[in-house]
Amino acid sequence: xxxxxxxxxxxxxxxxxxxxxxxxxxxxxxxxxxxxxxxxxxxxxxxxxxxxxxxxxxxxxxxxxxxxxxxxxxxxxxxxxxxxxxxxxxxxxxxxxxxxxxxxxxxxxxxxxxxxxxxxxxxxxxxxxxxxxxxxxxxxxxxxxxxxxxxxxxxxxxxxxxxxxxxxxxxxxxxxxxxxxxxxxxxxxxxxxxxxxxxxxxxxxxxxxxxxxxxxxxxxxxxxxxxxxx
Amino acid sequence: xxxxxxxxxxxxxxxxxxxxxxxxxxxxxxxxxxxxxxxxxxxxxxxxxxxxxxxxxxxxxxxxxxxxxxxxxxxxxxxxxxxxxxxxxxxxxxxxxxxxxxxxxxxxxxxxxxxxxxxxxxxxxxxxxxxxxxxxxxxxxxxxxxxxxxxxxxxxxxxxxxxxxxxxxxxxxxxxxxxxxxxxxxxxxxxxxxxxxxxxxxxxxxxxxxxxxxxxxxxxxxxxxxxxxxxxxxxxxxxxxxxxxxxxx
Lengths: 230, 249
What we know:
Order of helices and strands of chain A: HHHHHEEHHH
Strand content of chain B: 5-15%
Oligomer: heterodimer
Distance between the termini of chain A: 65 Å
Shape of chain B: elongated
Number of strands of chain A: 2
CATH class of the largest domain in chain B: Mainly Alpha
């Protein structure tokens, strides 16, 4: 019945953005909870974190979830890219004067820019830790890969000359994520048609809270690790 | 009041356009924006120059014919007004006002400030109707009970005048607010409900074929809509399209 094909429809692309986006929000919660263990320093914190890292890289269920996460990121990026290209094509001649700020939020108009910043961050971040954990040379402690020491060293200005720059970069990326989530979270529900006078204000509030708490939680770690070590 | 106008001049669909500057003096604050444009055109005609082409019809804010992107906003500053209901008192003395046509691949410029909005007509033709006979020998309307709340909601959606401000103002030139209002006004009522599943699929299909962009939920359309059509219509359409896609045979 559908002339353009179900997968090609503009709405289906929106559903895909919403589903992958919400799945990635779940991933963020899990990732943040794991990261918060870094606040526990000393040998106990070290072994607990390393055991956690071992579990996260070997548990089969987590493996499935991680592949789903990679796929979601890729799909979210590609879908976003296609949607952005289509949207550019839909207005070949630009306005001489356009005042978007009078009718919409800055974040909602710059999701592609914010998403690109996040993509660059994800690649950098995976190169810094994920790659080292999976394929890099990493010291062993008690038979476990010592990701704890690697992470601490990364934000230690005594060891890493770029620690200050990296801390700032991580904080900047998290601010960008905050803006991206601030629009994206509640937008996903709207895209899926979940709009109701009773629940939408709750969703919007939850989205704002999520977009502040989660990035702030992530950003607090590099700041904390940098400060206690300098 | 005195104002400086910068108006889009474009000879035809395939020619390049540019802004043209005109000084206006003794503009009354009680003039509507279109009346001010009439004064400008009158002067241009008397000077032997080409007047600006622009769309207008009822000048009462109910037909959806007038357009114009004024100072970066569809139908200019102010909320819930069409350009014909926008008065010059909304501007300051000495202000420079930019006037542009709706800009969208699906609304090609015909001349100056007039654009071809027949893409909207084709979306309506794709499914924006009820197939039952609603005129002539029909049963009494009160024999079908309709909850007041549903009737009110359908009416709110039906107030869309199809002017295209939503498309013009959307950074993606998306027509979701228009299409969703038309989908909603029919699917909320029993007469339209029977075909609602097919309707939403057809209308969204046609919307995509016409080359409108994708909705990114910026909400700009709802703010600039002269009739205050709500984003809840878009959510309803998203819901209906999803369930219709999953259940259509």
